[in-house]
């Protein structure tokens, strides 16, 4: 019986399948371009509850019962644009240490423990034109979460250890800012558009970070963090009346203050085209930025210009992508962005990357497309593509309660009507091809373009000067300021006496006779991936030649400096050493102890006593030694008992000093050599060298330092 039912069922299925197959028309599938889609539904935007506390704080509240959590965000009328020019970084560091430094009642670490126990987070920050805070907490912990948030906003402690940590992190960021070519291009393009000293383009330097004090942070916070200069939005799983009472109780007792926001100079459009170049010889691609000042979100032409930008360079179907990348094959990437800010002009930029050999051709192609678009406007097809792209993404602007409440608060913060986005959508829908073309002619100016290229000019297809008078931009990072007293006759005399004793203790005449030496050693490098062992050989020829070979698990690495420039090799891949690294290496070679011993009495050297100190609980004399032709400087810590150097401190490539400790001195041919050297940065060991052998005056050939062909 079961088999009969099964056969009956299969027969029925087969009959249906055959019947359905017979109904299929043997026509070609409809082309995707002819497919019709229904009109998109309008997003339903909920209306938050808005009220104002007696002290002037504006509050937005919106229920959202999707998850058993509650979130809050705060906006504060402040920003980095209000910090002094000689203390760039003050605003962001203030926002950072407000959280990490904790409050007057709890340290930042104690707050971390409290928040971790209830799976919550509270963060503070200060950006360009606003500051703020964020809270995320389970709904049962909202009372504690709000109290922590209020305490951080009202009573930050700015503890010294967290200020020091913030400074170290800021300096580390400065040291790495030229590592990424794309980052260099973006940063320097904005500095060209706004001007390097404008608040919207200033960058931190070692000196500006050093200028920032604890009192500066206290004063900055006190000036701007007042309830009547603040707005808060709260959304999540709660009842509106209950949350209104909680917010009033938490923040209502905070006394209002008064502040006058300093005026910020508005940027100006360039009057003529400029061509700018940043040399980067260690790359084979060019990063290209072209553009001028953009607009604000409330510009009359904003909707039309956003459509124009989408059609021109806003995606895979845009004009730049199709013409410059697909048709001409010039770009790895290319696009445009009509930049708009709420209360100041953004940046209109066309950017992309290409191989070095097509740099100028790509620039000309981008500019040609811009000029055609300004002259002829956009086509019906381009307008449709731009509208569809914008309108199809509009619904996602309000996909969550968080988006809704934060957008409404931000609009009020900058003085925009709360229906701004709805009006923008309608203007986008109603924009005609003529409207967009008129806006392009009015606001896009090919004659005022700023052109920036980061790359290797020796490989360009044409000189950049064919585009106009070229200016080379120097992105060298200014060295950190030194806080060391100038020498006096007394400190100079004492310093030279100490060096003479140290020379005698190290081998005297035997040291003065050194011309070259080769050192074989075992090295332990500390990396983010852990410790790495290496066998190495270092060869030095005075005054300024060096070669180093290391054998590691990943292969052999060679690095050499021939007295003028350097090169590196790994896995058969040979490349020039970046000029900044070559310069650093040359400076360090002139501070080599052997070279210093042989030359410290010459006019090129400045050596003087700095202070007394201790290293490993042993008293030392600290000397300042400078080699004036290269502005290289180091500190020597000379053991008072043995007169041997037990430590040196020199400036590394980054913001932190490189400390080297010398131990295990042994006699090699009448010369005292340290057989164990440890190097530390920021208190963490990153290198240990244990020497196996020294060979002195073996007659090293110059070929040892030449770059292989």
> What do we call the CATH homologous superfamily of the largest domain?
Lipoprotein localisation LolA/LolB/LppX
Give unreliable regions as ranges: 1-26
Number of helices in the DSSP assignment: 20
CATH architecture of the largest domain: Clam
- For this structure, the CATH topology of the largest domain is outer membrane lipoprotein receptor (LolB), chain A
- Total strands: the figure is 26
For the report, how would you describe the main beta sheet? Answer: 13 strands, antiparallel
Label the structural class.
Answer: alpha+beta
Structure description:
The protein is an alpha+beta fold and about 700 residues long. It has 3 domains: about 50-180 and about 205-250, Metalloenzyme, LuxS/M16 peptidase-like (Cytochrome Bc1 Complex, Chain A, domain 1, 2-Layer Sandwich); about 275-470, Cytochrome Bc1 Complex, Chain A, domain 1 (2-Layer Sandwich), CATH 3.30.830; about 490-705, Lipoprotein localisation LolA/LolB/LppX (outer membrane lipoprotein receptor (LolB), chain A), CATH 2.50.20.10. It is about 35% helix and about 30% strand. The chain contains 20 helices and 26 strands.
SSE blueprint:
Blueprint: H1 2-22, E1 49-52, E2 58-63, E3 69-76, H2 90-100, H3 108-117, E4 121-126, E5 131-138, H4 142-154, H5 160-176, H6 181-194, H7 206-211, H8 214-224, E6 230-236, H9 240-251, E7 274-279, E8 285-293, E9 295-296, H10 302-313, H11 319-327, E10 333-341, E11 345-355, H12 359-376, H13 380-394, H14 401-413, H15 420-430, H16 433-443, E12 450-455, E13 470-472, H17 489-506, H18 509-512, E14 516-527, E15 530-541, E16 545-552, E17 555-561, E18 566-570, E19 573-576, H19 579-589, H20 593-599, E20 605-615, E21 618-627, E22 632-639, E23 645-651, E24 657-668, E25 671-681, E26 684-696
Parallel strand pairs: 2-6, 7-12, 7-13, 9-10
Antiparallel strand pairs: 1-2, 3-5, 3-6, 4-5, 8-11, 8-12, 10-11, 14-15, 14-26, 15-16, 16-17, 17-18, 18-19, 20-21, 21-22, 22-23, 23-24, 24-25, 25-26
Helix pairs in contact: 2-5, 2-8, 4-9, 10-13, 10-15, 10-16, 11-12
């Amino acid at each position: 019986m079961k088999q009969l039912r099964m056969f009956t069922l299969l027969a029925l299925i087969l009959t249906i399948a055959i019947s359905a197959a017979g109904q299929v028309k043997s026509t070609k599938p409809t082309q995707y371009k002819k497919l019709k889609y229904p009109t998109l539904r309008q997003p339903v935007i909920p209306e938050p509850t808005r009220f104002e506390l007696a002290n002037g704080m504006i509050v937005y509240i919106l229920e959202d019962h999707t998850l058993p959590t509650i979130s809050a965000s705060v906006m504060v009328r402040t920003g980095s644009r209000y910090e002094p020019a000689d203390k760039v970084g003050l605003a962001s560091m203030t926002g950072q240490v407000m959280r990490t430094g904790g409050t007057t009642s709890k340290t930042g670490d104690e707050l971390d423990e409290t928040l971790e126990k209830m799976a919550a987070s509270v963060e503070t920050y200060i950006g360009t034109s606003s500051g703020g805070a964020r809270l995320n907490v389970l709904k049962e912990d909202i009372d504690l979460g709000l109290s922590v948030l209020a305490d951080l906003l009202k009573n930050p402690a700015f503890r010294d250890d967290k200020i020091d940590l913030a400074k170290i992190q800021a300096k580390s960021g400065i040291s790495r800012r030229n590592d990424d070519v794309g980052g260099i291009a973006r940063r320097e393009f904005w500095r060209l558009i706004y001007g390097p000293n404008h608040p919207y383009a200033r960058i931190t330097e070692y000196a500006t970070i050093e200028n920032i004090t604890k009192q500066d942070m206290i004063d900055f916070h006190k000036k701007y963090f007042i309830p009547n200069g603040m707005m808060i939005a709260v959304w999540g799983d709660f009842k509106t009346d209950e949350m209104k009472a909680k917010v009033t109780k938490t923040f209502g007792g905070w006394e209002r203050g008064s502040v006058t926001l300093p005026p910020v100079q508005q940027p100006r459009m360039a009057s003529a085209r400029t061509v700018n170049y940043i040399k980067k010889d260690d790359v084979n691609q060019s990063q290209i930025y072209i553009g001028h000042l953009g607009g604000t979100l409330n510009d009359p032409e904003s909707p039309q210009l956003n459509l124009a930008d989408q059609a021109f360079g806003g995606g895979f179907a845009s004009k730049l992508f199709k013409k410059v990348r697909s048709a001409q094959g010039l770009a790895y990437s290319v696009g445009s962005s009509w930049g708009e800010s709420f209360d100041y002009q953004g940046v209109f930029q066309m950017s992309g990357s290409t191989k070095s050999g097509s740099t100028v051709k790509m620039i000309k192609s981008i500019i040609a497309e811009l000029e055609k678009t300004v002259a002829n406007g956009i086509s019906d097809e381009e307008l449709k593509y731009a509208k569809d792209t914008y309108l199809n993404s509009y619904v996602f602007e309000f996909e969550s309660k968080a988006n809704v409440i934060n957008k409404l608060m931000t609009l009020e913060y900058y003085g925009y009507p709360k229906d701004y986005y709805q009006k923008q959508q309608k203007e986008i829908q109603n924009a005609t091809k003529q409207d967009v073309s008129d806006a392009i002619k009015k606001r896009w100016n090919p004659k005022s373009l700023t052109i920036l290229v980061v790359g290797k000019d020796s490989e360009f297809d044409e000189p950049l000067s064919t585009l106009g008078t070229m200016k080379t931009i120097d992105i060298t990072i200014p060295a950190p300021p030194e806080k060391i007293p100038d020498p006096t006759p007394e400190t100079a005399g004492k310093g030279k006496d100490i060096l003479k004793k140290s020379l005698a203790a190290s081998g005297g005449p035997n040291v003065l006779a050194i011309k070259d030496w080769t050192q074989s050693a075992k090295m332990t490098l500390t990396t983010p991936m852990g410790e790495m062992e290496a066998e190495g050989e270092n060869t030095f020829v005075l005054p300024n030649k060096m070669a180093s070979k290391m054998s590691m698990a990943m292969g052999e690495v060679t690095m050499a400096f021939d007295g003028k420039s350097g090169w590196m090799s790994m896995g058969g891949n040979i490349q020039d050493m970046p000029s900044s690294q070559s310069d650093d290496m040359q400076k360090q070679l002139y501070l080599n102890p052997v070279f210093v011993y042989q030359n410290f009495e010459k006019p090129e050297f400045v050596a003087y006593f700095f202070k007394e100190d201790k290293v490993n609980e042993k008293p030392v004399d600290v000397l300042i030694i400078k080699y004036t032709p290269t502005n290289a400087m180091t500190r020597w810590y000379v053991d008072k008992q043995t007169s041997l150097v037990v430590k040196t401190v020199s400036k590394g490539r980054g913001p932190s000093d490189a400390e080297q400790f010398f131990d295990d001195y042994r006699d090699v041919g009448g010369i005292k050599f340290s057989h164990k050297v440890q190097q530390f940065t920021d208190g963490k060991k990153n290198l240990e060298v244990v020497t196996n052998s020294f060979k002195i005056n073996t007659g090293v050939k110059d070929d040892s330092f030449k770059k292989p062909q």
